[in-house]
Structure formats: C-alpha cells, structure tokens
Design goal:
212 residues, alpha/beta
Length: 212
C-alpha cells in the first residue's frame, strides 16, 4: 500500500487539511516503518495498516471535539504516539504531553515529533501516578479499564473550561464495554466509530467520553 493510498483515507474524512498537515501525515508512513524496524511499537503485521488502524483511529477524537487553541491534552499510556501524535498534527495550536512507562516508546514519540518539527508535543517516560500537571483532557487508546484509569488521572483534569464539551477523558476502546462503563452509566457517552468511519475495521470500536 503506497503513501498516496494511505493518505486517501485521512483526506476522505478530513478534506480541509493544510499543506503542512498533509505533509506531516504523509511523513508518518516512512517514520513509523523506519522506527518500527528498530523498536517494535506497532505489531509487525499491522504496520502496513498504519493509517487506518492507528492514524485515523486516533483522529476519531477530532471528530468528537475540535479542541480550542490553547487546550492542554495528556496522552496517557501513549505507546508509540497514538493518539497523541496524529492529534498534535490536527491541532497545532494545542499542547500535547505524551507519557508512557516504557523508555523506548517515549524515544520513538520524541524522534517522530522531532522529525516532523512538532513544537506542540512533549513526550516523557512517566507513570500516570507520577504525573502532577493538570490538563483540559486526557486521551488514551485501550490502556486499561476505565474505572482504573479514572482513579489515576482524575487528579490531572482541570476545573477551568475552555472547550465546547466539559473537560474529561476520551478513550478509544473495542468490544463489549457494558461492565466497564457501568459505574459511570449516568454520565458516560459511547459513540461507535462507524458513525464517522465506514471501513469494516471500525465495527465494534468506540470512543468513550467521560466528563470530569
């Protein structure tokens, strides 16, 4: 699958990207293939699905909310940089802090951000329990069950509002989430990703939003 085909799926759903954003998204293909050959941050058999399974998946959050310039977002358990790196490209006037407990994953995040020239990304080897800063939103991709995550990051969510939605948590998850979301059933919102993306891979995958 070549770069043009890969980019088609991003431009299909985000047709108004600037030239710089297009260039950054295009560069992800070579950067992640290169880094993944040295440090395995994406499954070897999944790297050729980078744009659909990782980049577009991350950008589901951008379909739910267009972050206001100046918004601070924490990517909790960022792995190789998802959803943080694609969101940082999409929202260049917002700041993203990416944390993960694994040093080699943070190395990849920093090197990818550096290669792209992203000035709005900071990546630090840190466990969530150790994070002291406050943010408008916390984002993650299937890091841990939501109740466990809430216990760790609720201290990090600011009370000051600047976006169209209340500050809170966005999690990308799949499968049956009934028991996991039960403690928050009165306030949690679950959106099937096929609401926005028509590819079969997005079936039974969800964006979960939990306001502060």
């Amino acid at each position: 699958m070549d770069i043009i085909t890969n980019m088609d799926i991003i431009q299909k759903y985000f047709p108004h990207l600037s030239q710089e954003q297009q260039r950054h998204f295009e560069q992800l293909d070579e950067l992640y293939h290169d880094w993944n050959s040295k440090i395995n941050v994406i499954s070897r058999k999944d790297i050729d699905n980078l744009y659909e399974h990782h980049v577009l998946h991350s950008l589901a959050i951008a379909k739910a909310l267009h972050f206001t310039p100046g918004t601070h977002i924490l990517d909790f358990g960022c792995g190789g940089g998802f959803p943080g790196i694609p969101l940082a490209i999409m929202f260049p006037e917002c700041h993203f802090k990416l944390i993960d407990g694994t040093a080699k994953k943070i190395l990849v995040c920093n090197e990818v951000a550096k290669s792209l020239g992203l000035k709005n990304v900071t990546a630090v080897q840190l466990r969530g329990e150790e994070e002291k800063e406050v943010f408008d939103f916390v984002v993650s991709r299937a890091v841990m069950p939501l109740p466990d995550m809430v216990k760790i990051v609720q201290k990090n969510i600011s009370k000051k509002q600047k976006n169209a939605m209340p500050n809170g948590i966005f999690c990308l998850k799949g499968g049956n989430l009934d028991s996991e979301l039960q403690p928050f059933k009165r306030i949690v919102e679950k959106t099937e990703l096929k609401t926005w993306f028509k590819e079969e891979w997005f079936k039974e995958k969800y964006l979960v939003y939990l306001p502060r």
